[in-house]
Design a protein that fits this description.
The chain is of the alpha+beta class. Helices cover about 15% and strands about 35% of the residues. The protein has a six-stranded antiparallel β-barrel with strand order 1-2-3-6-5-4.
Length: about 130
């Protein structure tokens, strides 16, 4: 996960579990486009981590620059993956990935009821068992 949070085009999503609220960390392919963060859903929209983020309405993304607070997740289906850089688009096409998650960066003054405690992170990942 150290590499994922430091490599360009990658990051680590911190998200709360839907049942017990336990904090998980999942490596993802992440890109910034037009003020949004876009995360490729390489394991599909039914993955546990995606369902956790959708249920909570928020998450944090660790990138090589910093940790971002993200909210208002929405799944977008784009068979051409027009949002992605060409090399990423080719890979996504090869693995049949057509969905991505779009999120807005939230500044502290915009946070409202968003209160995900990322300090209690559990050192394991839900990415190991995608569903």
């Amino acid at each position: 996960m150290r590499i994922a949070s430091r490599a360009p085009g990658f990051g680590v999503v911190r998200h709360a579990g839907r049942t017990a609220g336990e904090i998980y960390r999942t490596p993802v392919a992440s890109f910034e486009r037009a003020g949004e963060r876009i995360i490729a859903l390489t394991y599909g929209a039914e993955s546990d981590w995606v369902r956790n983020v959708l249920a909570a309405g928020e998450c944090h993304l660790e990138t090589r620059e910093n940790t971002l607070r993200l909210a208002r997740p929405r799944i977008v289906v784009d068979p051409d993956n027009r949002w992605a850089p060409l090399p990423v688009r080719v890979i996504l096409r090869c693995i049949g990935s057509t969905e991505h998650l779009r999120l807005d960066e939230v500044m502290d003054h915009d946070a409202g009821s968003i209160a995900l405690d990322i300090t209690a992170a559990v050192p394991h990942s839900s990415a190991a068992t995608p569903k």
